[in-house]
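Please, structure for the following, as tokens.
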Amino acid sequence: MEMQKRATLAVTSSARPQVLLNDLHELKVFIKQKAKTCLHEPSGILKYRFVIPSINKVAGADDEAQIAERSTVGYYLQMYDWDSCFFSQAQSHLGINGLARDVVSNFLSLKGADGFIPRTVSPKRTWDSNDLCKPFLCQALLRELQQESFKRVLPPMFLQDLDCWLEYFRRTRMHQGGLFHWRNMLESGVDDNLGLIAPLVAAKDENEDSESYPDGKIIAADLCSYLVGEYEAIRQIAEHFDEKGLVAKYAELAHNLKQKVEEQLWNETLGMHCNLNPNTGRQVAIRTWTNLTPIFFGLARADRVKRCIEDNLLNPKHFLRPFGMSSVAVSEPLYNQSRRGLYGRATVSNWQGPIWVLPNVMAARCLVKHGYAKEAENLAARVLSAMSKGLKKHGTLYENYHADTGEPLWAPDFMSWNALALELIALLD
């Protein structure tokens, strides 16, 4: 039975779009050239180099506008938390040095005494009031330190400031049971995540009643996973710099949070973890990519990783689509490929079906780590085929793509974590 299952996966892997070498070369050259236009020199309240997601744009050009350009034409002109952190992970491919340190320094310079750090900032102002910077700063910093073989010391108070910020999560985003929730969907970055809308039927209506959308109360598998990644990253950094107190603290926090996620969020029927509505005690049983994050960030035990990969991630009946891993499984009744968010209360980018480069990079890394190298190459080829096709037709990159046709959908001139496509290209070299 096991051999038959792996044979099925191998057949699935071979049924992938053909990506021509010339197309990959053009995509690689485009990313390397245009990514550097997203990097800006210090300005205003941003005291270090910073990154905005959009290509060839003026940072903060819409600071005085009533409506940001991200909502009208899809241009992102601010420094965003996870966009900046994941862009910095591509710096070795891009020939940029020390960017992660600048990214982290900018966010830490904006930290309040209570530990709060905003998630969206431009040279003249902060945006998205009260939304907290997502937990990727330590992971971005650790990656850079490892690439540099820890040759540079950290500025004074760096670790203490990161610790203060992570404590803010524990004070303001932790449920009494020890698991975590976002303030709202927009803070999560997955702006119309069906896994944060409960009851799910509420998503079908444009209902502004916040009680129909208790997204700020839903225990979130993705936030819990990101925090485990962040705890383990700060532990490794602290270990190198001999901060024994922080090492012990974050080793324990990571262990305990992993255990709670495994105990409370695993859904045996779906074969994956799910968010939890603490108001009802019921899981939000939906196949959305954010529920794969426990396997992406190393929280799940081996048998669950295997089942989740083979029954969900690599299953064409659920997540594996012609042009990559969809953001919501095709088996879900609200799966759609709308240019903008179709279900929910905000007009935002669509995470309810289209492919996004970031989750697919996370998935490819997970596949390689767990012995599915050929399947990772297959996934990479699908995503790169969509990106190359869009680049050839429109001359630019987009934020997301149609999972079944590969057509670009929204936010033209989008770089951000699309720079990590260089990592996918490397899988095929």
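The first strand starts at residue 39 and ends at 40. Residues 1-36+314-429 form one domain.
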